[in-house]
Amino acid sequence: MQDNPQAVADTLKGIRVLVVDNDPPSQKLMKICLEKWGCAASAVETGVAAVAALKSDCYDVCLMDILMPEMDGLTAIQLIRAEGNRNLPIIVITAFATQDVIKQSFQVGADEVLTKPVNLTELQRKICQCYTSKQKRSNP
Question: For residue 48, with 0-12 CB atoms within 10 Å meaning exposed, 13-18 middle and 19 or more buried, which class applies?
Answer without folding.
Answer: middle
